[in-house]
Amino acid sequence: MRQSDPRPIDPAVKPARGLLHKRTSFEHFELTRFEPSDDLADWVEHHWMILYDLGDRPPYTQRNLSHPNQHLVIDSRGETGIFGAATGVFETTLTGSGRVFATKFWPGAFRPFFGRAVSALSDTWLPVETVFSRTSAAMQEEFIGLNDPVAMAERMEELIQAQLREPDEKVGLARRIVTFAEANLELVSAGELAEAFGLGLRALQRLFDEYVGVSPKWVIDRYRMLEAVETLNAGGAEPLTELAHRLGYFDQAAFNHAFEKLTGAAPGVFRGG
């Protein structure tokens, strides 16, 4: 018995993070997110759906900074499957009209389903049937007939519940460490993160390879960049030098280099755009 149904997330309370040029993004598609039901709250961070109808407008390429998570994705364009973290910038091009519905697992939580190191999923994707009891084609066909996003979330949760695993202690540890890195943006090294949890560096690296899918240093750097993108998207007046120092960079030049290398644009140009 479900303890609760999936319920919408208020974007004003918990805004979506990682969309490059967010204001332009929402001119091209609508994003809705849903909290999972209570019985999957330890496994699923949230469900999300985008709807788009570009009409006669040209194709639109959305660029995102991926988080350290795995996603189960049902895409009307046929790109249905299990997606790992994109270590660079993730790009997807929208044309005409369509929708994408997906479930985002907590960091560490997909490892029991996958049965091996989730680093094998990073920068790639696999068919749904690699892990779950339905094929990508069957899931895509079924979701064509669903118009209620809550019903879509419930169907995804039924699929996950049918193959629910017993979490091992490393699932919770991986999530706690990733959450700590997200909340402590002044961290600059994997050694600091390992020390905060009483782990050796190699043990932390092995844990992240198995359960998170990316390295501890990648997670540290990515959350700093996510904060930078959100700050610049908001168009605030914080000087770039102060932003760089707040995010643990030695100086603005180092921050500018890291930001431009990842996104393709200097921070000042990005904020202006």
Explain how this protein is built:
- This protein is an alpha+beta fold and 273 residues long.
- It has 11 helices and 9 strands.
- A 7-stranded antiparallel beta sheet has the order 1-2-3-8-5-6-9.
- Helix 5 crosses helix 7 (201-212), helix 6 crosses helix 7 (201-212) and helix 9 (240-246) packs across helix 10 (252-263).
Key words describing this protein structure:
273 residues, alpha+beta, 7-stranded antiparallel beta sheet, 39% helix, globular
H/E element order: EHEEEEEEEHEHHHHHHHHH
End-to-end distance, in Å?
49 Å
What proportion strand? 15-25%
Q: In angstroms, what is the radius of gyration?
A: 19 Å
- Biggest beta sheet attributes: 7 strands, antiparallel
The tally of strands reads 9
Count of DSSP helices?
11
The helix fraction, in percent, is 25-40%
Name the strands of the widest sheet in spatial order: 1-2-3-8-5-6-9
Gross morphology is: globular
The parts where pLDDT drops under 50 for at least 5 residues are none
The class by helix and strand makeup works out as alpha+beta
What is the average of the pLDDT values? 93
